[in-house]
Write a structure and sequence with these properties.
With about 190 residues, the protein is mainly α. The protein contains eight helices and no strands. Helix 3 packs antiparallel against helix 4 and helix 7 runs antiparallel to helix 8. The longest helix has about 35 residues. It is elongated, with a radius of gyration of 17 Å.
Length: about 190
């Protein structure tokens, strides 16, 4: 199913409607971490490097979609925090883990938001946890906005560089850009 989705995204990436897809998938990935948002932004960057899309719009819509999704995840955590605490964090050990997470988010929340944006699944865990633990929303917005802008710029630019370099081979451009993105994720 995932291969079919990736093939479909690659086919659509030269269409102007792909801007809407970038925003939507970036939004969904923040709530459902199996959605390939980084891949989509990279494909948008490749299409921009080959002259089909505008890189600025790819980056802006990727960042806005990611920020919108992160806000949904934050508010889901905040609104359902009491229920989650009762269901998932019951017991002394689990409650201690939640207390530890709350302390870490209070001390390092900004840096955690920025680095988690580059780790699949990590972004959802940190944004939901920020809501559950009632982290300051204005602080969350500031760091999350920075994280989303950095993430979309890096993914779109990687795609653009390799898309321009391999204008005749869309697949090769994607493989090189994705490998570079994966390397950054592993380093983080």
């Amino acid at each position: 199913m995932l291969n079919g989705l990736l093939d479909w995204l690659e086919t659509l990436s030269t269409n102007p409607w792909f801007y809407v897809i970038i925003f939507t998938i970036a939004l969904l990935d923040s709530v459902v971490p199996v959605v390939p948002s980084e891949t989509t932004v990279i494909l948008g960057g490749i299409a921009a490097g080959q002259g089909h899309l505008w890189l600025g719009a790819v980056i802006i819509l990727g960042a806005l979609g990611a920020a919108a999704g992160d806000n949904i995840a934050y508010w889901l955590g905040r609104r359902s925090g009491g229920w989650l605490k009762r269901r998932i964090f019951n017991g002394d050990k689990r409650a201690a883990r939640l207390d530890w997470a709350e302390d870490q988010l209070a001390k390092r929340g900004g840096m955690l938001l920025v680095t988690a944006r580059f780790i699949p699944g990590g972004r959802t865990a940190i944004t939901v946890s920020s809501g559950i633990t009632h982290q300051d929303y204005r602080r969350f917005l500031a760091f999350d906005g920075m994280a989303c802008a950095l993430w979309a710029t890096y993914a779109g630019t990687l795609g653009y560089i390799f898309g321009d370099r391999f204008k005749d081979n869309h697949t090769r451009a994607f493989i090189f850009a994705f490998a570079a993105a994966l390397s950054v994720t592993v380093l983080i």
